[in-house]
Design brief:
Layout lengths: L4 H8 L1 H8 L2 H7 L5 H27 L16 H12 L3 H4 L4 H16 L4 H26 L19 H13 L5 H46 L6
C-alpha cells in the first residue's frame, strides 16, 4: 500500500536541513566565503559518494527492485559532471590526485550497506542528495562562480542538470513517484530516519571541510597581520 512519502520526507527532515545549513562550512559558503582548496575537496568527496550511490542504483534498477527502480532517474546522476569538475581542478590525472576523506568514506560505506541489506532505505539518501542539489544548485553555482572567479561552467558542472528542462515540473513528478512507491508506513518511517542519517553524514563532511577552511582563513589573517607589522605597524 502506497503512502504519501514526499510530504513526510520534507517535514521529517526539516530540522536536519536547518542544522546542515548552519554548519560553519555551509554558512560561509552561503555568505560567499569559498576557498578553492576546500571547495575542490568537497567536489572530490562528493564524487566518491555519488559514484557509490549511482553504482548501487544502477544495480538495483537492473534487478528491477520495486522501490528503487521507479526513482532511478538517470537525468539526476552526478558522477559524470563531477568527473568533469575534477578534471578542471586537478588535471587529466585527477584520479591519482584525489583521495577520500574519513567522513566521506563513512558515508560511502553506509550507502553500500543500505543498498545491500535494505535497498528501500536508499530512497532516503536519494532524496537528501539529489533533490537538495536540484533545489539549491543554481544558487550555490552563482556563489561559487563569483567567489572562485570562474569562467562559464568551468568547475561548476556539478550544478548543471542538462537533461532536466523544467526543474519545477521534474520535482512534481519526483514527488508523485515517491507517493506511489510500493511501501507501507513502517518502511516510510525507516526511509525518513535514513534520510536524517544522510544529513548527518553530510554534516560530518562539512565539519571536516570546516577545519580545512578555518586553517586556510587563519593563514590569510596571519599573513595580513604580519604584513602590516613588516610595514612598521604597531598593531598586534
Amino acid at each position: 500500500m502506497a503512502v504519501a512519502l514526499a510530504g513526510q520526507l520534507r517535514e521529517g527532515t526539516k530540522k536536519s536541513h536547518t542544522m546542515a545549513e548552519n554548519t560553519g562550512f555551509v554558512a560561509c559558503f552561503l555568505k560567499g566565503v569559498v576557498e578553492k582548496k576546500s571547495y575542490r575537496k568537497l567536489i572530490s568527496d562528493l564524487y566518491f559518494v555519488y559514484q557509490a550511490m549511482e553504482e548501487e542504483i544502477e544495480r538495483l534498477v537492473k534487478e528491477e527492485h520495486p522501490v528503487i527502480k521507479p526513482i532511478g532517474f538517470k537525468s539526476l546522476f552526478r558522477t559524470e559532471t563531477l568527473e568533469n569538475d575534477l578534471k578542471f581542478y586537478f588535471g587529466d590525472d585527477w584520479k591519482n590526485e584525489i583521495n577520500i576523506s574519513k567522513s566521506a568514506e563513512e558515508y560511502v560505506k553506509r550507502i553500500h550497506l543500505v543498498a545491500q541489506t535494505s535497498p528501500e532505505l536508499l530512497v532516503g539518501h536519494h532524496y537528501t542528495r539529489y533533490i537538495g542539489d536540484l533545489s539549491g544548485g543554481q544558487i550555490l553555482k552563482k556563489i561559487a562562480k563569483k567567489a572562485l572567479n570562474l569562467d562559464g561552467n568551468n568547475g561548476l558542472n556539478f550544478y548543471e542538470f542538462k537533461n532536466i528542462g523544467d526543474e519545477k515540473k521534474f520535482k512534481e513528478e519526483y514527488s508523485k513517484t515517491l507517493n506511489q512507491l510500493p511501501i507501507n508506513q513502517t518502511i516510510a518511517d525507516e526511509i525518513i530516519d535514513e534520510a536524517n542519517k544522510a544529513f548527518t553524514y553530510n554534516m560530518k563532511m562539512f565539519k571536516e571541510l570546516e577545519g580545512n577552511l578555518i586553517g586556510v582563513l587563519g593563514k590569510i589573517v596571519f599573513n595580513y597581520l604580519t604584513k602590516k607589522v613588516r610595514k612598521g605597524s604597531t598593531e598586534t
